[in-house]
Amino acid sequence: MKIMSGNSNLPLARAIAGYLELPLTDAAVRRFADEEIFVEIHENVRGEDVFIVQPTSYPVNDNLMELLIGIDALRRASAKRITAVVPYFGYARQDRKPGPRTPISAKLVANLITEAGADRVLCVDLHAGQIQGFFDIPTDNLFAAPVMAADIQARYGDQSLMVVSPDVGGVVRARALAKRLDNAPLAIVDKRRDRPGQSEVMNIIGDVKGRACILIDDIIDSGGTLCNAAQALMDEGATSVTAYITHGVLSGAAVSRVTNSALKELVITDSIQATEAAQQSDKIRILTIAPLIGEAIRRIADESSVSSLFD
Ligand code: R5P
């Protein structure tokens, strides 16, 4: 088995390789003067079971292209099996047509990864579970929930908890986390705009008064969804609001928005390499999912059960 990495999240790839007690495959990603990407693998991979780690986070298109070219290089070097390990799957939010004459880019990206030569895909908390069906190759979708639940129990286990989904679409994810927290009660933030042009109103379904709220979501991008939800929960009498989010996309002014928000703490995973600003923020804490991914890789290589990781 070999673990190779692109440039998107080298610390995570190193930590995964460390968990598996393997060195990272010696490879280089270079750029031509016009920014074309060139991948060179400096060791033999013929007949190997290779896992290429590359979240397709910012800069999304460059990181995606690195992944595709890396897979192509492995295929042409006669790797026996290639697994694209994409802890954060960019373009996942474009998983349906929001209107006429619009693309389904998540499907296009799935086609590109398959066409490049991947035999399997390993993702974490896909924006929508159905995206697995965009691939006609085996796709494992891991959940960060066990890592988050352990942290919540350790830090907030003595408080009167309430798990909150920031929108109706996230209820299944929130319920799964609540189940892991000894069946903690569940609340939902329902965003409504009664008329076009009117500002959004947040209704909370559930009584959050006196509760330490745990907001859970797959992505924090601009931070708008989360910071508004945190304020609405505090207005309804929550004692504190902590957010657990798998993918810290944190674009633009998101870190300062979080810093100035009603959130007590934002906990993200290392599926995406955190920016300097995120690493330095007192309100942001990062949990590693390297052992989770490493263990899933070990089980895929051994052909043992991956789903039992979540029992
Ligand atoms: C949306 O469906 C996702 O689950 C997130 O809620 C969304 O991407 C967060 O975006 P933002 O942080 O920009 O509000």
Summarize the structure in words.
It is a single chain. This protein has 311 residues and is of the alpha/beta class. 31% of the residues lie in helices and 25% in strands. It has helices at 10-19, 60-76, 105-116, 145-156, 171-180, 224-235, 254-259, 276-280, 290-302, and strands spanning 2-5, 27-31, 37-41, 49-53, 81-86, 120-124, 139-142, 161-165, 186-192, 201-205, 212-220, 240-248, 265-269, 284-287. Strand 4, helix 2 (60-76) and strand 5 (81-86) form a beta-alpha-beta unit. The longest helix has 17 residues, at 60-76. The protein is globular, with a radius of gyration of 20 Å. The relative contact order is 0.13. It binds ribose-5-phosphate (R5P). Ribose-5-phosphate is lined by residues 166, 169, 217-226.
